[in-house]
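DM between two lab members

TW: hey, do you still have the Stage 0 sporulation protein A homolog entry open?
JB: yeah, one sec
JB: this one, 223 aa:
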Amino acid sequence: MYKVLVVEDDLVIARTLTAHLGKWGYEVVGVTDFKEVLSVFTQFQPHLVLMDISLPFYNGYHWCTQIRNISKVPVIFLSSMSDNMNIIMAINMGGDDFIAKPYDLTVVTAKVQAMLRRTYSFGEQTNIIEHNGGILNLNENTFIFNNEKVELTKNEFKILQHLMENVGKVVPRDSIIEKLWENESFIDDNTLTVNITRLRKRLEEVGISDYISTKKGIGYIIS
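TW: and the structure you got?
JB:
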């Protein structure tokens, strides 16, 4: 089932879109806290976003830019601000399409279907893991914090992914070694320590310290 995120502050329009797309078999979530659009996005991990331009606190251009920093998920703008300047701005900010209000729900449905078909016809999905403001993009091997992107090595990425998939749990050193090198009997235990140290330094570059804690004699944990 495809998931659609609706970022629309007009409750009547948001409810109408949610109900209509739900009838077409989509799982739809509407944002209610417009200070936390990116947080809702990372938690819900939609396949497509329907975005209004005029929103409380920050406009749709802002949130589209934030989403583009971490994801290639298609964004369709829905707005009554449909002059050429706003349409151009929407596309330049990372939008994939623009539908002017007032609109026909059948047109919205057709555009959503077409966009999903084009984007995911080959099974491509954008997967992310988020914790305490840190966002790991599983497709791009990158980590983002406060809009700063860190390019990770293959091993750094695998370690961070394994830890973030087990937030709140102590991950044994043997488990990490096995995930990295498959057969731990051929790996010096110090090699993992070196990789963890390098990963911590990479995170510190974007202002994160103590993200990964050591449980002496056991392993590592992200709390």
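TW: got it. The mean pLDDT is 87. Helices lie at 11-23, 37-44, 60-68, 84-92, 105-120, 154-164, 173-181, 189-204.
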